[in-house]
Amino acid sequence: MGSIAYLYGYFIYFCKKNKMGELQQNKKLYSGGLFYAILCYCSWGVFPLFWKLLLDVPSTQILAHRIVWSVIFLAGLMLWRGDRTFLTYFSKPKTLGLLCITGALIGGNWFVYIYAVNHNHIVDSSLGYYINPMVNVLLGVVFMKERLNKLQKWAVFFAVAGIVCLTISVGRLPWISLFLALSFALYGLLRKKANLESLPGLLIETLLLAPFALFIFGKWTRPVTEHFCISRFKQPFC
Q: Is this prediction's pTM over 0.70?
């Protein structure tokens, strides 16, 4: 849900008009991007509550399930909508190659986030999503030729100052934070450059990751069954 909302928001935010002044003239479009951005960050904020319920499950297995169920959900959604756009991507080697890269970025991002939460690095993961908007701004200025007005520059300055303070309080190099921020920012930039529709692109990415998920299932068949059929209180529920 968070990834879908992020892609919609990122697409709307940079859609067709690459200059902030021009984009702000279309209040409806701007409001739509802002809404989806808030929605995805809120959903990411509550994710740790869910991942904490799966402390006994290895991060790789959680990731594998997330990938497989994402494929099933997205494929079902696309079929229900009667949208066959994703099939055209298979005939475009360049597009498919780019989706391989973005798939690797989103897969790595998912894994590190799950690992961070389930290994008591929630502060690091949260810091990553504080840093992420600043990286998005940087990439927007450098690659999308965005220009910030004076008020926006001050907003970025205070945001960066807050991030620096949080980083110092951690007391070490927050590699988890940096990986989450950079991987997701690069993911958004590449998806924007590819100019692909959100849902079909995400479906292809998860399809490309599916073989790795199935490999994990094949290698740890018994543990997967045991972990997902026994609750934290050792009571069977499947």
A: yes
